[in-house]
TrEMBL record:
Protein name: histidine kinase
Transmembrane segments: 6-27, 34-53, 65-86, 98-119, 151-168, 180-200, 212-230
Gene3D superfamilies (UniProt xref): 1.10.287.130, Histidine kinase-like ATPase, C-terminal domain (3.30.565.10), PAS domain (3.30.450.20)
Species whose genome carries this gene: Algoriphagus aestuariicola
Transmembrane helix among keywords: yes
């Protein structure tokens, strides 16, 4: 077999090798849909390469050998073009698994007829050598199948081009430019071939210029793919815009596949390597269906989600921004991810602080009202009584008769004043805790003695039952106020003739003190307020006034001494307060 190189053959062989190499690189590097444009280019380069070799040989027999090899690419290129167009535009074929294989039936039949043409001459009726040009060229007489091969090839190229145009004719500027280049890639070689078939473009008899047109077009497309990221949505100055964004950004095309993302997006996923060009959204968001639903909606929406990784969790805000021209179909979606964990914590803290501040303001207003009524009333009453006694309007006997009631009022004023001072101290400058060893039994006994007279006036019995040498670690002043408020509160709400139980329970690491009355009980609403630290007031069985401050201080002081408080109450049957404080060993006598 003799080979004589000429400029036409040399140009065709070199350009075929270049396009073939680029097509293989594209098919390996890029994802599935774009890979098929690589297969189309590769088929055209096979056609052009072996046609170039055909132009170098000198006999009909040798030319037919290379002609059969070039047809392997010629018949595959149109079908590969249709597959590329369908995949690139997102055509769903899950319910039509036969569709893609069926596109290669006619090419397979055509190639089989080319290989066996000497038996039936359906493709070429006859062949001869054309020697009128600068080098020998294969002459052909078309057989019955040859027009079929031309028609389906043209139809497949036009079909693929129409699919591209139909999908992207209203797309954004970026996709329209891509589509225009692809349509040129599909139509230009066909127009060139039509002009060749009409003998309008034919340097000399028998030379087919169509492979040159295909190779020239695909060379431009491959350069655009590799140099300018033709099939990726790349905004202007992408590196300067996307990469400086603190929010993660992922851009999806209309098929919900990634076409771009910034480095910040990788911080939101357990496997940042999953983020790559061509990755499907359903794989990225398989554990977050709410984000996938947001993407599929293709509307501008925002949602909040939570990501859990390696035992840690954080809250993120996800914003979905459709990419489309005005009134056009959506051609892509930009998704923005922002870590808002600290923001949520700050907002929750601010809400909590606002609620606490409002409660303190309400409590302050309430206490000013208490001072102006409950404290001012009894003090001014005593002042007026002394004034009347001094002027002789009230006799000494009448004054002595009123003295028990005055003493009772002064007891309430003393408790009120003590609670007000304690609360003011804790709110304005905080409490200075001085934990020390305390004999709880002795502490309770002292407070019982102080409140004994108040209980007798209401015919209430104080029943004390605590362990000897029951030692705890706590602040003495706070514990005294806790016990005093619990016992006085029990007396206040007990019915005359009943009793108040003050007793201790044995705890392993803590001392347990219980104060139980058999009075009116606490309503469910007030129990909820008590457990959440909200102040409330209720008048006692003998119409005693209250500030709502005592139990608030008890709750606060117990917490500061590392203790707990629980309340059990039944309306009409009474209330039981149970408090715990850290237990201590009895000190050794030296």
């Amino acid at each position: 077999m003799e080979f004589i190189l000429n400029p036409y053959a040399f140009t065709l062989i070199i350009s075929s090798l270049v396009v073939g190499g680029l097509s293989i690189y594209i098919a390996i590097k890029l994802e599935d849909s774009v890979r098929w444009i690589g297969f189309t280019m590769l088929a055209s380069s096979v056609w052009g390469f072996f046609y170039g070799i055909e132009l170098t040989v000198q006999t009909v027999e040798d030319m037919l050998v290379w002609s059969k090899l070039q047809y392997a690419g010629l018949v595959m290129a149109p079908s590969s073009w249709v597959v590329f167009s369908m995949k690139y535009t997102g055509y769903e074929t899950k319910d039509k698994p036969w569709l893609y294989p069926s596109l290669f039936v006619l090419p397979a039949v055509t190639y089989l007829l080319v290989l066996t043409n000497s038996w039936h001459h359906l493709h070429y009726k006859s062949n001869w050598l054309i020697t009128s040009g600068p080098f020998p060229i294969l002459g052909i007489e078309k057989g019955l199948w040859y027009p079929v091969q031309v028609i389906y090839s043209y139809f497949f190229y036009f079909l693929g081009t129409f699919i591209l145009w139909k999908r992207f004719k209203y797309a954004n500027l970026h996709f329209r430019r891509q589509t225009l280049l692809l349509i040129m890639g599909g139509l230009f070689p066909l127009i060139f071939n039509a002009l060749y078939q009409a003998s309008w473009i034919k340097p000399f008899e028998g030379l087919d210029m169509t492979p040159y047109a295909f190779l020239f077009t695909y060379l431009l497309i491959s350069i655009a793919i590799l140099r300018f990221n033709l099939f990726n949505i790349k905004p202007v100055a992408r590196e300067k815009i996307l990469e400086v964004m603190t929010r993660g950004a992922i851009i999806f095309d209309h098929r919900q596949k990634i076409v771009d993302f910034n480095s910040a997006a990788g911080k939101f996923w357990r496997k940042p390597l999953d983020l790559k060009i061509g990755a499907a959204a359903r794989e990225i968001f398989r554990s977050h269906p709410e984000i996938l639903n947001l993407l599929e909606s293709q509307n501008h929406q925002i949602l909040q989600s939570r990501i859990v990784q390696s035992g840690n969790s954080w809250d993120i805000k996800v914003e979905c921004v459709p990419i489309s021209d005005s009134g056009a179909i959506v051609s892509g979606v930009l998704m923005l991810f922002e870590n808002i964990t600290e923001q949520i914590k700050t907002n929750e803290q601010l809400k909590k602080q606002a609620t606490e501040l409002q409660q303190l303001n309400d409590l302050k207003d309430k206490f000013f009202s208490i001072i102006s009524h409950d404290l001012k009333g009894p003090v001014f009453g005593v002042k007026e009584l002394i004034h009347l006694t001094q002027n002789g309007i009230v006799t000494e006997e009448e004054f002595l008769e009123m003295l028990p009631e005055i003493s009772k009022n002064m007891e309430q004023v003393a408790i009120l004043l003590e609670n007000l001072l304690a609360w003011t101290s804790s709110q304005l400058r905080g409490e200075y805790l001085q934990p020390q060893l305390l004999d709880l039994n002795k502490l309770i006994g002292n407070q019982k003695n102080l409140l004994e007279r108040l209980a007798r006036e209401k015919s209430i019995t104080l029943d004390l039952n605590c362990f000897e040498d029951n030692w705890v670690i706590a602040d003495k002043n706070m514990m005294e106020l806790i016990i005093r408020n619990l016992v006085s509160n029990a007396i206040k709400f007990s019915t005359p003739g009943s009793k108040v139980l003050i007793y201790c329970e044995d705890g392993e690491d803590e001392a347990v003190l219980c104060v139980q009355d058999f009075g009116v009980g606490i309503p469910e609403e007030n129990l909820r307020k008590l457990n959440t630290g909200i102040s409330f007031t209720t008048r006692g069985q003998s119409n005693e006034s209250g500030t709502g401050l005592g139990l608030l201080l008890v709750r606060d002081y117990i917490a500061k001494n590392s203790g707990t408080m629980t309340v059990h109450s039944t309306l009409g049957q009474g209330t039981k307060f149970r408090i715990t404080v850290p237990k201590a060993n009895q000190p050794q006598l030296s």
